[in-house]
Amino acid sequence: MKFLEKMKFDEKGLIPAIIQDADTNEVLMLAYMNEDSFLETMETGLTHFWSRSRKKLWKKGESSGHTQKVHEILFDCDIDTLLIKVHQTGAACHKGYRSCFYRKIVDKKGKVRTKGKKVFDPEKVYKKK
Question: How many CB atoms lie within 10 A of CB 87?
Answer without folding.
Answer: 12
